[in-house]
Design a protein that fits this description.
Layout lengths: L1 H21 L11 E5 L3 E6 L13 H8 L4 E5 L13 H11 L8 E5 L15 E3 L2 E4 L2 E5 L4 E4 L11 H11 L3 H10 L6 E4 L6 E3 L4 E3 L13 E8 L3 E8 L4
Parallel strand pairs: 1-7, 2-3, 3-4, 4-6, 8-9, 9-11
Antiparallel strand pairs: 2-12, 5-6, 7-8, 10-11, 12-13
Length: 250
């Protein structure tokens, strides 16, 4: 009986170890593709973790904010949906996103949708980028180049996969200095002078010295929603201003 118990404990330990290791995709997926985009003038807003199909809130305030602030680029940084990970992305999904956010057809700003990889967003057929009118959908991450600095933007489940979201939330809640984002910056190794903007943990924050930020979430899960986004403002490719903003929303 003692021998059997020993083997059972070893088996359980190996299972737990396997779960933990597979929760860190960067350990196995070495390459991480950033699609580069020049952005030399205007305002870009990064919003994430809307979880629309499980979120009953009226979120048309997002569209109102984009119009009122003359935003030229909206970046949806993953987990826009909640229960679509097994479904291919369809045009109807993008129409639904626009409707829920109060974005009218013919809006003056472009939209980039960065898909999360592991447990919420739909996937792209044939793993090719998808474009519909003014919306670009990418399975890769985004490197926003502004002239004087770069912003590396991705959801964050490349660092900790979906079922470890709670770990990322706990780390950020306890440390209060964005340790999760700092670790992600080390993992992608794109230089200390560039910015890294994540989502995924649901805990908003910004550290100007370390040049890391998290957009926060719009659903009460793990932590309360804060109606936050990251605003990047660029003037003539010479100066970038980045800040964590709160979008007015009832």
């Amino acid at each position: 009986m003692k021998v059997q118990k020993k083997y059972i404990l070893w088996a359980l330990a190996l299972i737990v170890l396997g779960i933990l290791l597979t929760g860190f995709p960067f350990l196995f997926k070495k390459e991480f593709d950033f699609k580069e985009m020049d952005f030399y003038d205007g305002k870009a807003v990064v919003v994430s973790d809307l979880h629309l199909d499980s979120n009953p809130r009226d979120l048309t305030c997002v569209g109102d904010y984009l119009n009122n602030e003359n935003v030229s680029l909206l970046i949806l940084n993953g987990d826009v949906f909640d229960k679509k990970h097994k479904d291919p992305l369809k045009k109807e999904d993008l129409d639904y996103v626009k409707e829920r956010l109060g974005i009218e057809d013919g809006s003056s700003f472009d939209i980039i949708y960065l898909l999360s990889s592991y447990n919420h967003d739909p996937y792209l057929k044939l793993s090719k980028d998808f474009k519909e009118e003014n919306v670009d959908v990418l399975e890769s991450a985004l490197a926003l180049k502004t002239g004087n600095e770069n912003f590396y933007i991705f959801h964050g489940d490349y660092i900790l996969s979906g079922y470890n979201t709670g770990i990322a939330s706990i780390v950020n809640k306890l440390s209060a200095n964005l340790l999760y984002e700092k670790f992600a910056k080390i993992v992608i190794n794109e230089g200390k002078d560039n910015w890294v903007i994540l989502s995924h943990s649901h805990v908003p924050g910004i550290n100007q010295k370390a040049k890391v930020a998290n957009t926060g979430s719009w659903i009460n899960r793990f932590v309360s929603s804060k109606n936050t986004a990251v605003l990047i403002e660029v003037t003539g490719g010479q100066k970038s201003i980045i800040d964590l903003v709160k979008i007015p929303c009832d």
